[in-house]
Amino acid sequence: MTTQSSITRTDPELAALLRAEERLQADTLRLIPSENYASAAVLEAGASVLQNKYSEGYPGRRYYEGQQNVDPVENLAINRAKSLFGAEHANVQPYSGSPANLAVYLAFARPGDTVLGMSLPMGGHLTHGWGVSATGRWFHGVQYGVNAKTGVVDLDEVRDLAVRERPRLIFCGGTAVPRTIDFAAFAEIAEEVDAVLVADIAHIAGLVAGGAHPSPLPYADVVTTTTHKTLRGPRGAMILTREEHAREVDRAVFPGLQGGPHNQTTAGIAVALHEAAQPAFRQYAHQVVANAAALARELLDRGYDLVSGGTDNHLVLIDLTNKDVPGKVAAKALDQAGVVLNHNTVPFDPRKPFDPSGIRLGTPALTSRGLTVDHMPAVADWIDRGVTAAHKGDEDALRRIRAEVRELMAAFPAPGLPTA
Ligand SMILES: *Cc1c(COP(=O)(O)O)cnc(C)c1O
Question: In this predicted structure, what is the pLDDT of residue 353?
Fold first, then answer.
């Protein structure tokens, strides 16, 4: 399957880049934990004529005519989101995860209000009140971290900060959190200080949908998520909430923050939610977790220092200090070897954020291709040999890994990519 024949005719230069990207995604081992492979059906929805329509407003309440098909598409996405996650209300219009979080601020807080979130270098997200983000510049960001010994969120610290600072919003969730989030404990703290609890499940939405991570829905006032990470949908986001907050959330997204929704994305979200409701997706979610656990064990066996000592979910964070290789050096060498991941800060990192001590990896994309726990020793070997090669500057070793990776990946065609 390839949808690029028109581009090949009109813009060969761009078409060549798209084909090169298809090859890159096909023959590398993609370990970036926020990335995945969307299905051909999801990609098709995203390239559909729905993108030609303007439809500011919500189904049945639009500012433009000609919504005969757009309204049912958005209703499909909304109803599937509500049913899959057990939510009373869903807004599927946020352009991406960051605007979804900004909409939550707009709905529940005023500039200058205090917001409590996990700090970026400890594993939180920019939009949880970090200084360089609009959320940290327009709001008073107070940040919690992890326990220095356990590497796990320190709920005593969260509670102490909440009691002292009385935040309007409390965010839980993040981008480098390898352990189960205790939504019930966060809810208890939020209730004690009368704060709005926001569970940002951008990374783990697919695991929640597939029953491989506890759901925040019974506990959080608001749940935000991207749709393109473990959920395997298009680039987009959703806000799930109880009926009592439906109006303020909807008004914050439109007209508060955005104009017309991206209807082709809405359609892609509907397709992805339908896929995520199938039994095969439950199996996928559990396989993602099993693969990450197996990979973590293999890495521990090879002397790697994992933040929190392992993982409960799809994500592994490695502190490379004991291997004497900076995160960026390791990530760049592994990229040459066809093993694609990202450098990352580790908690209490003594190095600078743009040159940190760690690498972050995860199993969502490789699991979408059908790799199982049986392949994790090979994956750990490639990482280990790549890190050793990075240490020695051994380019030949990286080339050998590249060839082995290419060979394995050829046996596991990726969803959404052309097979030839
Ligand atoms: C990815 C992510 C976001 C932001 O999503 P974008 O679509 O990149 O804007 C927000 N919060 C968390 C926890 C994330 O992991």
Answer: 87
Read off the pLDDT of residues 128-163 as tens digits, 9 standing for 90 and up.
999 999 999 999 999 999 999 999 999 999 999 999
State yes or no: 124 annotated in a binding site.
yes
Sequence ranges of the chain with CATH classification 3.40.640.10: 44-276
Closest by Cα among 279, 306, 278 to 362? 306
Distance between CA atoms of residues 323 and 305, nearest Å: 9
Catalytic residues: 54, 56, 200, 226, 229, 235
Task: Quote the CA–CA distance of 19 and 39 in Å, as a whole number.
Answer: 17
CATH topology (fold) of 279-410: Aspartate Aminotransferase, domain 1 (3.90.1150)
Instruction: Write out the CATH class of domain 44-276.
Output: alpha beta
CA separation for the pair 94, 266 (Å, rounded): 10
pLDDT value for 1: 42
Q: Is the CB of 34 under 6 A from ligand 1?
A: yes
* Stretch(es) of the chain classified as CATH 3.90.1150.10: 279-410
Global pTM? 0.97
